Amino acid sequence: MKQIGELLIESGYITESQLQKGLKNSHERNVRLGEALIDLGYITETEVLQTLAIQYGIPLLPSGELIVDQTILHIINPEFAKEHDVIPVERKGDAIVFATADPLNISLIGRLESQIGEKIVVYLASLSQIRECIERYYQGNEEIHNSMRYMDDYKVDSAIDMLNPEDVTTESGPIVTFVNQVFIGAIKERATDIHIERDGNDFHIRYRIDGILKTMFRPKLDLHPMITSRIKVMARLDVSEHRVPQDGRIMFDAEGYRVDLRISVCPCIDGENIVVRVLNSQSKIPELNQLGFSEKSLEKVNGLIAHNFGLILVAGQTGSGKTTTLYSILQKLNKESVKIITLEDPVEIRLPTLNQIQVNTKVDLTFASGLRSILRMDPDIILVGEIRDQETALLAVNAAMTGHLVFSTIHCGNTSSVPIRLAEMGVEPFLTANVLLGVVAQRLVRVNCPNCIEEEVVSDYVKEMLGLNFQSYAGKGCAVCNGIGYKGRTCLEEITIIDDEIQKKIIERATSNEIEEVAIKEGTVVLKEGGLNKVRARITSATELVRVL
């Protein structure tokens, strides 16, 4: 095998004279030749790594930020990673890939294999890459990594019928600590849901971040019943019942403030799976101008909410940000001179001076029955969480007609479908036409990561779907966005003001397409066109727009 000095000369990186000076410096300082040549300014770290990769046939990771699979980070502790400048990057087949800047350290590789008990594959990366990666992924996350290591060492001696109650009912121990850290991690990552799932021979815990699920942990399969039992204990559910769905609630203390966790347990063929809805009342409500609406859309919304009475609806799918938009509006309207009452299922965010009522079907407090009571409490503004049936729809329309400004949400794809949906619920078109002020339809699109945005390669299918005739951009994935390419979300909105022409169409029982044609003539920018404007502005990508539409 050729020495690295020979390879550096053959590659044209250094001269024979520089090599001799480097060898002398290396001997005097007792450092490796590559380090000596870098310090002398003869060569760069990247050139040394490229040469080492050729010399030893070791793959070289791309320059820039390393993207790490967070489900394997815990297999070494932060102290070990910092001491030896090594970090696990990903699982590849039956081996774990580690990044190192020192492939000649055979004893380190042997120690890792002995410690982890799995096959190790080494890739080359620069020292600066590795140290930056260690800082990013380990700093502030020591507790969760320590908890995961404890879980790997935890011994389970029996099946679910023989669980030791103390493992899940006490306030200490690896199971308890791990579940707490999963909840805290979800809050830190801005996750809206936690999915705890067993699927065949795999047990994984995923966070829904920016509307997309991402696997965060893969505990041992035999820990699944213990983790689910711990969550059921915290939610005061029946730990011994595994055959029927159960719903519960946990008020979790997350570093000084309370977070509402809604628990849904469902029996599946491989065991019970759990979804935890994270309702963080401490989340800051965005101002209207922070939602991502265009200037024209903001003007329309401000015009709508200036009315004293009438019905304003926000339409969209589940998880499209309807509640956040309504809270932003209420935050703006919330004044001492105005009484606002909300009826929600559940109350997700607390606002000062508002009267917030939570639906409770167990005592027959539904949207309909609650709305009847609200009308006797002298409100100026009413928020009904959702119009989902005829009774609630008619009560909301009646409240709007009798001098109240009523806000609510409805499940519709666009603004022109809302009058049709209300008619299907039993609201007469002439009532809708008279009381409906306007409709906001929206979606949430992921925002391109500004750190790794580049020109997007768009498929013919996407081009055809959007009628795309310009270059779009997307994030390629980096450490800042955890390799996803997107960071955060913004609103994609369609706003229709119900004017005289649209009122006529509603009364005539026109189709949604006919209503949309009139709305576009009156100035409505439909979701697709608004989305293309955001693609043109490089806010989101064409592929993401097709996904949400």
Structure, described:
The strands form 4 sheets. This protein has a 7-stranded mixed sheet, sandwiched between helices. A 6-stranded antiparallel sheet has the order 6-5-4-9-8-7. The model is unreliable at 158-162 (pLDDT under 50). It contains 22 helices and 18 strands. Helix 6 (106-116) links the parallel strand 2 (95-100) and strand 3. The chain has 549 residues and is of the alpha/beta class.
Question: What topology emerges from the helices and strands here?
Answer:
Blueprint lengths: L3 H7 L5 H14 L3 H7 L5 H12 L21 H7 L1 E7 L2 E6 L5 H11 L2 E6 L2 H12 L3 H12 L12 H4 L4 H15 L4 E7 L2 E8 L2 E6 L6 H11 L11 E9 L2 E12 L2 E9 L15 H10 L5 E6 L6 H12 L6 E5 L10 E4 L8 H8 L6 E4 L5 H12 L3 E6 L7 H7 L4 H7 E13 L4 E3 L4 H7 L6 E3 L10 E12 L2 H8 L4 H10 L5 H10 L5 H7 L1
Parallel strand pairs: 2-3, 10-14, 10-15, 11-12, 11-13, 13-14
Antiparallel strand pairs: 1-2, 4-5, 4-9, 5-6, 7-8, 8-9, 15-18, 16-17
Helix pairs in contact: 2-3, 8-10, 10-11, 14-15, 17-19, 19-20
**Strand line-up across the major sheet:** 12-11-13-14-10-15-18
Our estimate of the beta-strand percent is 15-25%
User: How many strand elements?
Assistant: 18
Poorly predicted segments: 158-162
Tally of individual helices: 22
Q: Based on CA inertia axes, which overall geometry fits?
A: globular
Helix-strand category: alpha/beta
Integer-rounded radius of gyration: 29 Å
The residue-averaged pLDDT reads 88
Largest sheet entry: 7 strands, mixed
**Helical amount:** 25-40%
Distance between the termini: 57 Å
